[in-house]
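Entry for the shared binder. Reason: the reviewer on the internal report wants the predicted structure included alongside the sequence.
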Amino acid sequence: MAAGPWGWGPALSLALLLALLLGGARRLRRRYAADGAGPSLRGRAAAAAAARADGVRALLVTAHPDDEAMFFAPTVLGLGRAGARAAVLCCSAGNYYNQGEIRKKELEQSCFLLGIPASDVTVIDHRDLPDNPAVEWDTQLLAAFMLKHVEANNINLVVTFDAGGVSGHANHVSLYTALRGPSLLFLSLIPLKYATDHFALLV
């Protein structure tokens, strides 16, 4: 996603993808309104969404810069529309091609377009968490980083990859394993209101 032999093509592609997603959502809303859905139905749906999102502080846990756009953009946009506050914990700088610094800046720009300010974007750049599709990360180390972030920011909703890492990338799979493993027991640390009503691991 850096300006290299392809120029700014990847960055523009990301911007176009986000524009298409937002445009599609607008078209769906217009079609929904044109189909004659009554205001009471729309009002009830909006109220239900607002109730679900009341007080939600969501943490999107990703492996690399660009995961937030490629795999989670609709989820993040949906959380924002519902009134939830979202943050991103990216567990590497994405330095596989020695472009980590560029990709960190691109991550902040992408999150801004998704409605997440730079102050809510954290990048872990740890030597034991290399951007490498063949490396399974230390799940205890990941769990320690995640737990610290959850506790410090009162997180009550965590979103990450499924068991297959969506694309099969070993780094992606490690995030799922860390959140599901015995080394991460922070469910008991979330207040009961959130533990019963809001806390979820979306897989």
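Summary line for the report: Residues 1-6, 37-42, 186-203 have pLDDT under 50 and may be disordered.
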